[in-house]
């Protein structure tokens, strides 16, 4: 039987319709979008359709969408761009302890360059205390960056409330929505954000394509320099086929969001319940919250006295993620698990199991049986 894929937060397969659109664009929309002839206009029209499709997914105006080479570039552009554009107003930034490296490493770079960065801690489930956010804000704060939903444990952050606090102090608000798009509703006006990052390969589009929502009027310096592509925001001849793919992926994600949310949650809950039924309660810690506070597809589960990476290596039938790497010198926990302060006996045995469009009941039943069998076998040997 083929391996069971439960790593949709890491990446998604390209949707068949998206792949077909990509292939068509490679054949028929290869002109330079800046050229004023039929080949250029054909490519330009395809790009603008894609821009409108991405804008519709997040509830923005098409002119507020800047295409990028992926979510990491979008995060870099948002954070560094605002920091540079507003450096005369202050050099203080605020973020959270559970950000993806595409945000955390940008903050670390700016700290080395003279900006002051305040990192707001979280509780044992990744929740942010709004009072801690308010206490972190200062008159010289120019930007707050907080992810919409965490990639490891699925916790959804109160972005609208954080944005209100940021704006009350004159700061701008950025959110990395790579994990939330296509899994829960994401509307920039409701969230109140000034910038929002999109990663195509989390949306059943190819890797190497993304977008940045920039609210009209938001000051933002360029990340790279060249000609005036993307309304002067991001120079370089646009990658038309990949933008077409991202646009269609966004359209499908918006169209199918209600049914996908229900399916993801049903499969995730079935997997969780099957594991809990098969394993002794004292060896299991569910790191993910229930309900609307968590992405519907994400299950992080800690297995006491097991090592997650070794467990998965012994289970080639399952493709999933872990939160720790064990080696001769000890255990290296992910920054997220460190921030949560999960007891080591559970943290080192953490598995991240994430469901997707193609996940079936048979998949999760088989996965639960295989994982439980291997865990019990491991414990018997100790």
Short summary of the structure?
With 382 residues, the protein is of the alpha/beta class. The protein has helices at residues 16-28, 38-58, 71-85, 101-112, 130-136, 159-168, 188-191, 240-255, 257-278, 308-313, 335-340, 344-347, 361-381, and strands at residues 4-5, 65-68, 92-96, 116-120, 141-145, 172-176, 195-199, 210-214, 284-286, 298-303, 318-319, 321-322, 324-327, 330-333, 350-354. Helix 2 packs parallel to helix 8 (240-255) and helix 3 (71-85) packs parallel to helix 4 (101-112).
Mean pLDDT: 95
Low-pLDDT sequence parts: none
Determine the oligomeric state from the structure: single chain
Number of helices: 13
* Beta strand count: 15
Strand content: 15-25%
Structural class: alpha/beta
Strand arrangement, largest sheet?
2-8-7-6-5-3-4
Distance N to C terminus: 30 Å
CATH class identity of the largest domain: Alpha Beta
Biggest sheet record: 7 strands, mixed
User: How much helicity do the residues have?
Assistant: 40-55%
Tell me what the structure shows.
This protein is of the alpha/beta class. The chain has two domains: 16-255, Type I PLP-dependent aspartate aminotransferase-like (Major domain) (Aspartate Aminotransferase, domain 2, 3-Layer(aba) Sandwich), CATH 3.40.640; 257-381, Aspartate Aminotransferase, domain 1 (Alpha-Beta Complex). Helices cover 41% and strands 16% of the residues. It has helices at residues 16-28, 38-58, 71-85, 101-112, 130-136, 159-168, 188-191, 240-255, 257-278, 308-313, 335-340, 344-347, 361-381; strands at 4-5, 65-68, 92-96, 116-120, 141-145, 172-176, 195-199, 210-214, 284-286, 298-303, 318-319, 321-322, 324-327, 330-333, 350-354. The strands form four sheets. A seven-stranded mixed sheet has the order 2-8-7-6-5-3-4, with helices on both faces. Strands 9-10-15-12 form a four-stranded antiparallel sheet. Strands 1-11 form a two-stranded parallel ribbon. Strand 5, helix 6 and strand 6 (172-176) form a beta-alpha-beta unit. The longest helix is centred in the C-terminal third of the chain and has 22 residues, at 257-278. The two termini are 30 Å apart. The mean pLDDT is 95.
């Amino acid at each position: 039987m083929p391996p069971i894929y439960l790593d949709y937060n890491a990446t998604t397969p390209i949707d068949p319709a998206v792949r077909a659109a990509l292939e068509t664009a490679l054949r028929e929309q290869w002109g330079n979008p800046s050229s004023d002839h039929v080949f250029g206009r054909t490519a330009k029209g395809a790009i603008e359709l894609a821009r409108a499709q991405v804008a519709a997914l997040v509830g923005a105006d098409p002119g507020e969408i800047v295409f990028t080479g992926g979510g990491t570039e979008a995060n870099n552009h948002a954070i560094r761009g605002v920091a540079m554009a507003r450096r005369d107003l202050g050099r203080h930034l605020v973020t959270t302890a559970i950000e993806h490296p595409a945000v955390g490493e940008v903050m670390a770079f700016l700290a080395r360059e003279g900006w002051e960065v305040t990192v707001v801690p979280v509780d044992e489930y990744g929740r942010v205390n709004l009072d801690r956010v308010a206490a972190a804000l200062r008159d010289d704060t120019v930007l707050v960056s907080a992810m919409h939903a965490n990639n490891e444990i699925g916790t959804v952050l109160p972005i609208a409330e954080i944005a209100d606090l940021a704006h009350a102090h004159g700061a701008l608000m950025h959110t990395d929505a790579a994990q939330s798009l296509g899994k829960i509703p994401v509307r920039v006006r409701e969230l109140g954000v000034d910038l929002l990052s999109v990663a195509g390969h989390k949306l059943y589009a190819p890797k190497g394509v993304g977008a940045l929502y920039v609210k009209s009027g938001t000051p933002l310096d360029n990340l790279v320099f060249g000609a005036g592509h993307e309304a002067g925001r991001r120079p370089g001849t646009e990658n038309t086929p990949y933008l077409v793919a991202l646009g269609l992926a966004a359209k499908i994600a918006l169209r199918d969001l209600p049914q996908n949310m229900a399916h993801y949650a049903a499969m995730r809950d079935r997997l969780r319940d099957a594991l809990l039924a098969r394993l002794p309660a004292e060896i299991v810690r569910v790191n993910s919250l229930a309900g609307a506070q968590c992405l519907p597809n994400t299950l992080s589960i800690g297995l006491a006295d097991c090592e997650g990476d070794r467990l998965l290596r012994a289970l080639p039938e399952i493709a999933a993620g872990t939160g720790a790497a064990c080696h001769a010198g000890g255990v290296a926990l992910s920054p997220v698990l460190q921030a949560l302060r999960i007891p080591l006996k559970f943290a080192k045995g953490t598995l991240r199991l994430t469901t997707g469009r193609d996940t079936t009941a048979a998949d999760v039943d088989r996965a639960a049986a295989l994982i439980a069998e291997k865990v019990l076998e491991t414990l018997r040997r100790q």
